[in-house]
Amino acid sequence: MHIFMTATQQKHFEHVLLRQQAELVARRRAYLAGMTRSDPARDVLLQDGDDAAQRAPDRDIDLQRVEEDVACLSTINAALVRIAAGTYGICRECCTDIPVERLEISAQTPYCVACEAQCECGRKPSHKL
Ligand SMILES: [Zn+2]
């Protein structure tokens, strides 16, 4: 385990990550269940005089949300792996400690603020998860 973080803190972040993971999995399950059960029925109900073009953006937004959830889930899983490996809270780019305050806001982040900013600028796309 990394020295700057106590076992209690690490346990805390592990709980936070596991809770977020459970919420995302549950939301995705609910969404997929909704897709298979109610969507075909809703589409049939909406066919009369409905504007298909009006519905398409809704579907796009749903899919985008699912994709975001999947991406988020993979960063959470990666963070849990780092906890198990004892590298959690260390920036993957510059190897400095990620402040606990930052982890409280974004428990799954693999980068310190400076490296995250560089990634978001697209200068280091290879380091994105
Ligand atoms: Zn860094």
Structure description:
With 129 residues, the protein is mostly helical. It has a single domain, classed as Up-down Bundle (Four Helix Bundle (Hemerythrin (Met), subunit A)), CATH 1.20.120.910. It has helices at 7-46, 52-85, 100-105, 113-120. The longest helix has 40 residues, at 7-46. It is elongated. Mean pLDDT is 82; it is low at 124-129.
Which of globular, elongated, flat, extended, rod-shaped describes the shape?
elongated
Low-confidence stretches: 124-129
The CATH superfamily turns out to be DksA, coiled-coil domain
User: Given the helix and strand composition, which structural class is it?
Assistant: mainly alpha
CATH fold-level label: Four Helix Bundle (Hemerythrin (Met), subunit A)
Bound molecules: zinc ion
Number of helices: 4
CATH architecture identity: Up-down Bundle
